[in-house]
Amino acid sequence: MNINRRIEALGLHIPPSSPPGALYVPVKQLGGALYVSGQVPMVDGKPVYTGKVGSERSIEYGQEAARLCVINMLAALKDFTGDLNKVKGVVKLLAFVNSEVGFWEQHIVVNAASQLLFDVFGEDGRHARSAVGTNQLPMDVTVEIEGIFELREQEAE
């Protein structure tokens, strides 16, 4: 399976990776695992999905934010590896949803991220996951997602 062709068939555009906004690296390799720092729904360095899911923002709004987090995660991986075909699949996601008090459907918001990764990587896109509600995220973004990915064997060091 060619990941780049799959992304094209899905009609996705992977933008250039954004530089880190603080003292961290976007991707860190440990053996055959790539740890991707938390990605937020930004375009051209500006947050495009902000606010709390619940009464202020809909589940669908949160899902679009989660999808953009994954697209930015793929951008970071592409920048680090040079080619997304070097990534075998997804191991785990940790997602934070900026939530109103009483909102309890974070897992439904994050399903959009999981679905997109399945669409891109097929069965290798299935992953372990946590979806956590929080009262605030940086820049008031709606969702932040970090992930662990597996490199293909010839790429692991």
Task: Walk me through this protein's architecture.
The protein is an alpha+beta fold and 157 residues long. The chain has a single domain (3-18, 35-152), classed as 2-Layer Sandwich (60s Ribosomal Protein L30, Chain: A). It is built from three helices and seven strands; from the N terminus they run H-E-E-E-E-H-E-H-E-E. It has helices spanning 3-9, 59-81, 106-121; strands spanning 27-30, 33-39, 42-43, 46-47, 87-98, 128-134, 143-151. It has a five-stranded mixed β-sheet. It has a two-stranded antiparallel ribbon with strand order 3-4. Helix 2 (59-81) packs parallel to helix 3 (106-121). The longest helix is centred in the middle third of the chain and has 23 residues, at 59-81. The mean pLDDT is 95. It comes from Paenibacillus montaniterrae. InterPro entries: Endoribo_LPSP/chorism_mut-like (IPR013813), RutC-like_sf (IPR035959). This is Endoribonuclease L-PSP/chorismate mutase-like domain-containing protein. Pfam families: YjgF_endoribonc (PF14588).
